[in-house]
Amino acid sequence: RPSSASSVSSRLAAAAAPVLASRPGTGASLTGAPSRPGTSGGEKICCYECFKQVYLQRAVQVPMTPGTGGKAEGGSNAARHFCSESCADRFRQGGPSRRG
Predict the structure, then answer these.
(1) From residue 88, how far is each of 11, 32, 44, 98 by CA, in Å?
(2) pLDDT, tens digit, 9 for 90 and up, residues 70-90
(3) Tens digits of per-residue pLDDT, 30-55?
(4) CA geometry: angle 64, 59, 91, nearest 5 deg
(5) Residue 87: which H helix or E strand, with range?
(6) What is the pTM assigned to this prediction?
């Protein structure tokens, strides 16, 4: 079957053309309904020990003391955040030699 160069190039151009239509939004986003329960838990932080992400409200906080690294920048007392008590305990047991 003979095929002309113009018909081949027009088919290639049609295949390469960007699709401008966007996907329709979900019903919840169109109606302004609140998000699903449990999905907007607030700010996330990374565990200071294992770097796992955890919601701030569920994080274990260890206040900074001279034994755990002193004061934060600016001289204010700060806290380290951990995903669990076990990570906080590992940090406490690490002592100054670990952060020295």
Answers:
(1) 62, 40, 17, 14
(2) 555 555 568 999 999 999 999
(3) 555 566 665 666 899 999 999 999 99
(4) 45
(5) helix 85-99
(6) 0.48
